[in-house]
């Protein structure tokens, strides 16, 4: 445990950010899995599920969780599977 006041604050802030990032990543992974399953099963609402997954990817990219090229690759793969 740090002794310096600013270092103590950094520990608290990093902990909060880690929890936020973890929640966003988990939500993203769930959306991607749902989209893959919908496309694989040829579900009737697969376009909506893929669109929702793409939105989650964009949100993660905006928040800095994903690199922009990683987000672009994920979106491209989803579009390719759908098409």
From TrEMBL:
Coiled-coil region: none
InterPro entries: Ribosomal_bS20 (IPR002583), Ribosomal_bS20_sf (IPR036510)
GO CC annotations on file: cytosol; small ribosomal subunit
Keywords: Ribonucleoprotein, Ribosomal protein, RNA-binding, rRNA-binding
GO terms of biological process kind: translation
S-adenosyl-L-methionine among keywords: no
RNA-binding keyword on record: yes
GO molecular function: small ribosomal subunit rRNA binding; structural constituent of ribosome
HAMAP family: Ribosomal_bS20
Its job: Binds directly to 16S ribosomal RNA.
Family membership noted in the UniProt record: Belongs to the bacterial ribosomal protein bS20 family.
Protein name: Small ribosomal subunit protein bS20
